[in-house]
């Protein structure tokens, strides 16, 4: 039986671990021709081998790196159908702690990297055989709506919303059949977080209380939202924000 993204050429950044790894596994299972793009060659190649994906080394903050990926896709595949702009880092520094180098590095990955990915994807998708078309899904965060003290991270994820809307509107008004949306995970139980919780089990209660559903999300749930937006089922969705956070951004702060 054909999958929901059968034979669609798909690039997933930050696919070596966490939510990105979950996306790689789901999109491969759904028949996608997946390119796993990451700076972590060892983990990236391992995940790619397990899923029958193709690993490509990519620093998302590098303009030349994206240019090389464009050339590879054009030569080896002749088209791009899906981009999941997922790579990102945290700084964990407040406005009083942040230094300019840390600020610039985080913004170069979390925001400039998403812009470069969108630009490369639109260049490729507008020239797809049979007419322009494709889906771009940018990973933002609940911090796009509700701030945390990590000033660079919060700023970057708020910026992803504006970037997503701008690219979506540009593609739509040009008549390109290229959709652009953002997803907004909350606290998600990645392998890294599982390791932290194993070391400090008391943290689990605090993480679970972050959503009114009383639990953390699973990477598979975030991947499922990305799959929906990438598939033809979301053909009239563009410029939108899609939370996957158990109601976190809908709840008024609790009294106790």
TrEMBL record:
Transmembrane segments: none annotated. The keyword Oxidoreductase applies. SUPFAM superfamilies: NAD(P)-binding Rossmann-fold domains. Gene3D superfamilies: NAD(P)-binding Rossmann-like Domain (3.40.50.720). InterPro entries: NAD(P)-bd_dom_sf (IPR036291), Sc_DH/Rdtase_CS (IPR020904), SDR_fam (IPR002347). The keyword Oxidoreductase applies. Keywords: Oxidoreductase. Belongs to the short-chain dehydrogenases/reductases (SDR) family. This is SDR family oxidoreductase.
